[in-house]
Design brief:
The chain has about 550 residues and is α/β, with parallel strands linked by helices.
Length: about 550
Amino acid sequence: MLHKFKSLIQLIFIAFILILSPVSGFSQSGKPKAVIGIVVDQMRQEYLYRFADKFGDSGFKRLIAEGYMLKNAHYNYLPTVTGPGHASVYTGTTPSYHGIISNEWYDRGESRMVNCVEDKKQTAVGTQTGKGSASPWRLKTTTITDELKAATQEQARVIGISLKDRGAILPSGHLSDGAYWYDGTTGNFISSSYYKPGLPVWVDQFNQFKLADKYLNKDWRTLLPIESYHESGPDDSPYEGKLNGKDKPVFPYILSELRKTNNQYDLIVSTPYGNDLLTDFAKAAIDAENIGKDNITDFLAISFSSTDIIGHAMGPNSIEIEDTYLRLDKNIQDLLQFLDKKIGAGQYLLFLTADHGVGENPKALIQNNLPGGYFNTGDVLKGLKLHLEKFYPGMDLIESFSNEQVFLKSETFSEDPKTASIQVALTSEVIAQYLRSVNGISEVYTRQELSVKGSSANAIHDLLARGVHAGRSGDIFFTLAPGWSTVGGTGVTHGSGYSYDTHVPVIFFGTGVRHGASSAYHQITDIAPTISTLLEIKFPSACTGQPV
């Protein structure tokens, strides 16, 4: 009887401890030896479900089984494109603070479109083509990688790699030990003089292997029998783009032949072998940079880009994109096994997310009686100028019509600030009224209207407001209706504030992470403070997210 009583007391005590235990998805273990940040360019959350039956047990499924997944994570601003996506993941804030308002945007000071990582003060390293004139100087806040460098007196190793320059540069921050990206002219990984005057020996040695040639001499055939790809549409689809040299967008892709009709080394990014090449480069970086070899936490930021290139051309319903994700699953498995061996299972912290999702082809939507349409930017601009001529005859008021923004010519208004302010407000309203009448436009706001704080976390007004930077954005902003796109024929794009573009995977895995999942709404800006909390370092300088 006494034994049963003691057992009951023990059970009550255990239950009491469990009730008082934290319900967070994270445990209180020690700091990781390394953090691996993975961004998959253009990955929808639903791909994890749709392709699940064909994934192996050691890639995406392992991350989900052993990690903590946010099933309802969204981008909380506009536009949902690559540059802002990478910047927001690593800064924990939105374009209104970090300043990366698009991949390219109109710069009033330079009177031209500028790239988000373009830096004319820098020169290319590892190539003579000049494509390495880049740096993070346009990023106006610190990143989690910057804060890790600062917290360790710059002893932590921080490296960023991608096929795209912005995918390597923005995540690795201002204090990076190196950012490396793929040069389609040479088939090599290159860098910028911002980091070092020359490539490290290990990068030179990697380039000498000419792995791009090895992959481009292969054929791209489906990983599994093509008739088993039930999760996708037909292989020969009128909504898919064709590679130069192909009559139809169908398997197989004989790359050795297609190299003759495409820019030789650029071709690899349009195949899953681009992700294979980046995985090889990631393993070389871990070895050569001694990532995770001591008690000071290091950081490797990896951005897989071929998913985006293939996705734009073929769309989310293509066999090509499904096969790409089945192969990426094997890349993730390969990387995890390598990390287990080199750093130690449970000794590293990893997160996986995406920089945006993707929409459907509008032609496909229309032909299937679904809402959608094609938005012709040139026609709308022409109509807007004719409309303005009625109110302001002979005046050229528009400086730029880009990224769903209108920039007004400041020199056409009064030199008196108060008068100019009134004139801008009136002109903005005239333009806004016209845009609201255009078929395919959903919402229109002036800069003044966006300055009013909203109340909803995901209302279009608030998404736009968080994407506006005072010194870089335009004067009038508009969004397209659901399903509408600037892509008219084949292929797809992204950038909207709708769930198909905002809803992305977020998975935490490894040191300090307890298994589980949440269906609660989370913002993409929550990733950086979560990692900062686990590392016990300062949040990035303008962080607006909250730890999970």
